[in-house]
Amino acid sequence: MTAGKKSGFVALLGRPNVGKSTLLNRVLGAKVAIVSRKPQTTRDRIAGILTEERGQVVFLDSPGIHRPRKALNAYMVRTAQRIAEEADIAVHVVDDRKAAAGEEESLVRGVVANLSVPRLLVVNKVDRMGEAEGRRRLGALMGGGLYKEGFLMSAATGKGVRDFLDRLFSLLPAGPAYYPEEDLTDLPMRFIAKEIVREKLFEALSEELPYSVAVTIEEYKEEPGQNLVRIRGEICVERESQKGIIIGRGGQMLKKIGTEARLELEKETGERVYLELFVKVERVWSRHETMLRRLGYV
């Protein structure tokens, strides 16, 4: 990129399930972050890279900020706070649920208020709440001077996204591109494979079980001569009963999850994928810092 371009990091912050990952994927026009209707899907820092003629924006998707009750939840909140601190612009995303005065929103505003960078507010899911209600919600939240500017948006349909991007580019400093223009993320395929398997688990499992599940990729081996990628993953659960649910009768649930993950991985890699998944029990892993580190949450 030549001189005169803009570049920088934009943090997407908010409570769980407000549409941060959907917004990231919409902006990029590609799926980088996994998406689920279940809250607390994002557990790590997810970077999405948008490169245009006018510059480059690195969006940092973050775990939803909430009151942590386990070591895993505390890790997620710390990750969101670190992302906020490394950004050039902070974007607070809220949605159509009437929880703006709730505890989780107060926690998010507390994080945002401590930042010295420009702070923007996005009222998302305007397609569901309606334009009038969206403007009312935006006006109520903009009071107090916490945010430099506010936007109505629907990440699901793309409404308002272009105006939002235009404003980001106007606020970002001049600078070089941080990544090659063809890159959409800085995540390695091993990490993407883990996230895809975890997304399929979230989609297939009901109630609280997805929150007791972690995925590690034990082997990721490319065989270019055979147009093949071999992946071996472990699904970690907290109880024997959970292991049985994931495997399913005759192994059918695990087969379904593996097939769906393999098909998506083949789209991502452009190669054939041989995916093996195993399930093991690590009792109450989500409550212990040592187990979190073993599972890659550091």
Task: Explain the overall architecture.
This protein is α/β, with parallel strands linked by helices and 298 residues long. It has 2 domains: 6-171, Rossmann fold, CATH 3.40.50.300; 189-294, 2-Layer Sandwich (GMP Synthetase, Chain A, domain 3), CATH 3.30.300.20. The chain contains 10 helices and 9 strands. Helix 7 (189-204) packs antiparallel against helix 9 (252-269). It starts with 5 loop residues before the first strand and ends with a helix. The mean pLDDT is 88.
Secondary structure layout plus pairing:
Elements: E1 6-13, H1 20-28, E2 46-52, E3 55-61, H2 71-85, E4 89-94, H3 103-113, E5 119-123, H4 126-129, H5 131-142, E6 149-152, H6 161-171, H7 189-204, E7 214-223, E8 228-237, H8 240-247, H9 252-269, E9 272-281, H10 289-294
Parallel strand pairs: 1-3, 1-4, 4-5, 5-6, 8-9
Antiparallel strand pairs: 2-3, 7-8
The count of domains is: 2
> What fraction of the residues are assigned to beta strands by DSSP?
15-25%
CATH class identity of the largest domain: Alpha Beta
Q: Portion of residues in helices? A: 25-40%
Sequence stretches where pLDDT stays below 50 over 5 or more residues: none
Euclidean distance between termini CA atoms: 34 Å
Output the number of helix runs. 10
Structure classification: alpha/beta
| Fold-level CATH name of the largest domain | Rossmann fold
The outline comes out as: globular
User: How is the main sheet built?
Assistant: 6 strands, mixed
Beta strand count? 9
Report Rg: 20 Å
